[in-house]
Amino acid sequence: MKRVIALSIVVFVSGAVGSRVFSDDKKPDWTEMDKPGEFHKKLEPLVGEFDVDVKFYMPGAAEPAVSKGSMKSHWIHDGRFIESRFESDMAGKKFTGTALIGYDNYAKSYTEVWADSTQTPISVVRGSVDDAGKVFTFTQGLTDAAGKKATQKWVTTVESNDKYVFTLSNTGEDGVEHKVLEDTYTRKK
After folding, report:
1. How far is Cα 16 from Cα 13, in angstroms, rounded to an integer?
2. Are 150 and 168 in contact (CB under 8 A)?
3. Buried b (16+ CB within 10 A) or exposed e, 88-104
4. For 70-96, what is each residue's pLDDT tens digit?
5. Which of 44, 45, 112, 176 measures 20 to 30 Å from 148, CA to CA?
6. Among 38, 8, 61, 28, which Cα is nearest to 110's?
């Protein structure tokens, strides 16, 4: 009996509070909020098949390690998200990665998720695009393999509908930013 009373109170309070959160004239139209919009369209240059020139900056190395790769990206879920598959050869080993990117109409920010064949953490970054719709900047806090805290920044710069550049940098506890990766994506013809 106590459970029934407790459940009844929860349902009543939820309904009372919920009805006060949005007055009838201010209740959002969820069907409109869930539709892809102008911020999703800004991602369009990232869709397609690309050849990728990879530069990996290893600590202490005079020059970056260079390799080639490919990326295939397509819209999924009725234009809400882009799913990408990346493949390359890194130091003689096959490297694969998967990304999912989209615009969150509720949070008013971009979200990207990345997982690859070299690490166990899944990266989840949030970001924005500049007013011109050409530079996407994402950040995340992380803990490196040594247990140290760092901030990671991902920047994608759209140079044209056929080319974009992705850079990844880390800023450690010392406050110094270090470039880790630079990928140049050129659309396959």
Report:
1. 5
2. no
3. beeeeeebebebbbbbe
4. 999 999 999 999 999 999 988 789 999
5. 112
6. 38
